[in-house]
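Expect chain and fold; see below:
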Amino acid sequence: MREIIDKVEEELAELKQAIAQKNEPSIKLELGDLFFATVNVSRFLGYYAEDVLNESITKFSKRFQFIEQHLDQQGQEIANCLLEKLEALWERAKTQTL
């Protein structure tokens, strides 16, 4: 398992380097390699990567909806909120949504 995680870390480092160099073609390729390596972790652990991703999307959506509802109740728009407030709401959403 360590080798599989090492590969994810290697691909992440390569992506960071491509981003630092602002090399758009390499960024796209390295991002794909990172996705592939991450999917391999899922496969090794016995999970279907698509199912795991769908669960994360659902979790994210619920948290984002929590933030939107909270701001709506206060008459605020997300575009007008400071990042600090949004981060605090995100942390709150993590404790109040599954």
In short: The mean pLDDT is 95. Residues 1-47 form one domain.
